[in-house]
Design brief:
Helix content: under 10%
Oligomer: single chain
Order of helices and strands: EEEEEEEEEEE
CATH architecture: 7 Propeller
CATH class: Mainly Beta
Length: 135
């Protein structure tokens, strides 16, 4: 271990992704359904954003400046990095419940999620989403 830093109001620090270029970490805080943005240079949280219940896996698409969080409750919470110090929530995109993992294709900007149920019934399939353009 080389360092240990408190993450502020983040409760239940679970998933994490990095914006390597801007030295930011994105933490999914499952205990209070919050995305915490952490400055890796100053070692402090710089933003807290609400998200859908049950956050799990976090992915960052540096090409779009987009942060995605898969949430058990049936949503992918989507955030925009306007610049390294300003972030905003775009939406809680509805998906099937228990979608708690995702992957981002950095070339096409598509988001891939595995589904294990549809309306409460078991399924096994991959869903692919195209990133929406937001102002």
């Amino acid at each position: 271990m080389v360092a240990r830093y408190p993450v502020g109001k983040c409760v239940g620090n679970h998933g994490m992704a990095l914006d390597v270029a801007h030295r930011r970490a994105f933490l999914s805080c499952e205990g209070n359904d919050t995305l915490t943005v952490f400055d890796l240079e100053k070692h402090v949280p710089i933003a807290y954003l609400p998200m859908a219940a049950g956050p799990d896996v976090v992915k960052f698409d540096p090409g779009l400046g987009r942060i995605y969080v898969a949430c058990y409750s049936g949503a992918i919470s989507v955030f925009q990095e306007d610049d390294p110090d300003h972030f905003r929530k775009l939406e809680d995109f509805p998906v099937q419940r228990r979608v708690h993992s995702l992957a981002v294709d950095l070339k096409t900007h598509r988001v891939y999620t595995p589904e294990e149920q549809e309306n409460g019934k078991p399924v096994a399939r991959m869903i692919v989403y195209a990133a929406a353009v937001h102002p």
